[in-house]
């Protein structure tokens, strides 16, 4: 593993085999990083997708609880108690849904967005600059070949000067694109640490916030409601066992 | 809406049009309840499915964070910090995964199971007994018709006695099946209140437990870790803006 941490811009003009070899190491690293980033993004999108599905599922559940009232049961005696209890549960589910939606939004903004931006901006930039650098290198090679094929006769001085100018232009262009490419590869090495950690920071903070708000919301407030529903369920269960109501 | 709350078993033998009409009200109610229960079960299964998917998604994310180390990056300089940070995040995700799995199990046991049992036991029993009652009623009608078609001549006394016995048997059978059917319909009216509330009690308790454990787990313990990661991310971000490291 090479111990260098950046491509030196001053080496770009000379474009030596050593520099090219070091460049290929940086390119390989960028390739591995692109692949890993795509896999990480996929895993994060799965978490985000599950969170979103939870929002939709709790929405549907809350609606379904309210729908009990609208069923027009042929026998409605004693239903007021069921209806009001399900209404209360529906409110609980709604409050949970608010927390779930907030978490989903937070995951989108602080987990998914940063890693997508890293992919779309940093990784795509490196790949675009690689293409441009490749084109400029080919162009330079072509003009060099053209120059070396020129006949050595004197009457061609004018044409020779033109080709030499072409070579110089191609070299300038290649140099410029290599500078940009090196810069982007160096920046990627630096950016990758943040790019890997930032989304997980967002994820963890989102979860902490979710738990904190959830614990506050559900602390003691529901105790008496749940105890009374639980008593009701228990009472009915016992009646059924002893058959006292049938 | 009738104000009765049960079918009287003593009316079953006489099987009057009034009793039949009341029975049809109970049957309509059971039909509405079956439909509503299926929709509620569907909504609850969606919540459970989302919770399960969250378990799988967090598992995959944790694995993917650990996989960074095994990527064999061509340039590994400075990666120790990224690797150890991602390891730590992976542990956090694992702990969250434990909570998610526990919640999923709790939802399965205390929300999905009771409502499935209500459907498979109570609702299916009513529907089976309805079929048996229908069969017994048809049988009774057939034997009654047979008896009424008997010629009134004296030499048929023996055959007549046989058919009369058949009618009596059919009536006993119908009476018995109506008693069972009435009982099941009465029990359903009673059970439905518990059946609607019990799963939501399980759901809400599962959530409360989840938030409580989550809030405990993430309270202060992560603060210093997150602050140091956050500082790192911030520092890198500033360096990038000023270009001091490139």
The biggest beta sheet of chain A is recorded as:
none
What general outline of chain A do the C-alpha atoms trace? rod-shaped
Classify the beta-strand content of chain A into a percent band.
under 5%
Q: What's the domain count of chain A?
A: 1
What is the end-to-end distance of chain A? 81 Å
GO biological process, one term (chains A, B): signaling
Domain BAR (chains A, B): 8-238
Organism (chains A, B): Phasianus colchicus (Common pheasant)
InterPro entries (chains A, B): AH/BAR_dom_sf, BAR_APPL2, BAR_dom, DP13A/B
Written overview of the protein:
The first copy, chain A, has 246 residues and is mostly helical. Chain A has a single domain, classed as Arfaptin homology (AH) domain/BAR domain (Substrate Binding Domain Of Dnak, Chain:A, Domain 2), CATH 1.20.1270.60. Helix content of chain A is 83%, strand content 0%. The first copy, chain A, contains 4 helices and no strands. In chain A, helix 1 packs antiparallel against helix 2.
SSE topology sketch:
2 copies of one chain form a homodimer.
Chain A: H1 17-67, H2 79-148, H3 157-218, H4 223-242
Helix pairs in contact in A: 1-2, 1-3, 2-3
Features:
mainly alpha, 246 residues, homodimer, Adaptor protein, phosphotyrosine interacting with PH domain and leucine zipper 2 (chains A, B), AH/BAR_dom_sf (chains A, B), BAR_dom (chains A, B), 4 helices, Substrate Binding Domain Of Dnak, Chain:A, Domain 2, 83% helix, BAR_APPL2 (chains A, B)
Briefly say what this structure is:
The structure is a homodimer of 246-residue chains. Helices cover 83% and strands 0% of the residues of chain A.
């Amino acid at each position: 593993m090479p111990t260098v941490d950046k491509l030196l811009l001053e080496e770009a003009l000379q474009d030596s085999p050593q520099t090219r070899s070091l460049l290929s190491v940086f390119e390989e690293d960028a390739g591995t990083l692109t692949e890993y980033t795509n896999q990480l993004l996929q895993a994060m999108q799965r978490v985000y997708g599950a969170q979103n599905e939870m929002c939709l599922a709790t929405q549907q559940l809350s609606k379904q609880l309210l729908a009990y009232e609208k069923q027009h049961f042929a026998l409605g005696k004693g239903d007021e108690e069921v209806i009001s209890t399900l209404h209360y549960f529906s409110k609980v589910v709604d409050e949970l849904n608010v927390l779930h939606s907030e978490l989903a939004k937070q995951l989108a903004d602080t987990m998914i967005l940063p890693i997508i931006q890293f992919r779309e901006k940093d990784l795509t930039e490196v790949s675009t600059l690689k293409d441009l650098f490749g084109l400029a290198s080919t162009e330079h090679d072509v003009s060099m070949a053209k120059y070396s094929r020129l006949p050595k006769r004197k009457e061609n001085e004018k044409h020779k000067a033109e080709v030499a100018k072409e070579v110089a232009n191609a070299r300038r262009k290649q140099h410029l694109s290599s500078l940009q490419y090196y810069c982007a590869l160096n920046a990627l090495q630096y950016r990758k640490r943040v790019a890997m950690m930032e989304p997980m920071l967002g994820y963890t903070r989102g979860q902490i916030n979710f738990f904190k708000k959830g614990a506050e919301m559900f602390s003691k407030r529901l105790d008496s409601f749940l105890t009374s529903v639980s008593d009701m369920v228990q009472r009915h269960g016992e009646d059924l066992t002893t058959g006292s109501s049938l």
